[in-house]
Specification:
With 101 residues, the protein is an all-alpha fold. The chain has helices at residues 44-64, 71-100.
Length: 101
């Protein structure tokens, strides 16, 4: 079985001329604010509205279904409503954070 012979000490890594960049100490001279890439966050009012609608669907499902399975769709609807409510609250908190700084 043939083995490939390598020269010792050659790893294939190439260091650019000038060596490593020197680390600077202290803060950057002019730090730029962080940029958020992607879609703008949804309106907190819209998220709260959708949350209330899902919670209402959960109540309607719980009161109208007569089978033993009525708990499962009602709990799922309540859970989705709570997730939208959490999104609305976090959106409000995220928008208030830069004002206080």
């Amino acid at each position: 079985m043939a083995t490939r012979q390598r020269k010792p000490g050659l790893s294939g890594r190439v260091t650019p001329k000038g060596g490593r960049p020197k680390a600077t100490r202290g803060p950057a001279p002019n730090p730029e604010p962080a940029v958020r890439v992607g879609r703008r966050p949804s309106s907190s009012g819209f998220l709260a509205f959708v949350s209330v609608m899902w919670l209402a669907v959960g109540v309607i499902l719980f009161l109208t279904l007569s089978t033993g399975w009525r708990l499962i769709p009602a709990i799922v609807a309540f859970g989705i409503g709570l997730l939208f409510l959490r999104g609305a609250v976090s959106s409000v908190l995220r928008r208030e954070r830069p004002r206080s700084q």
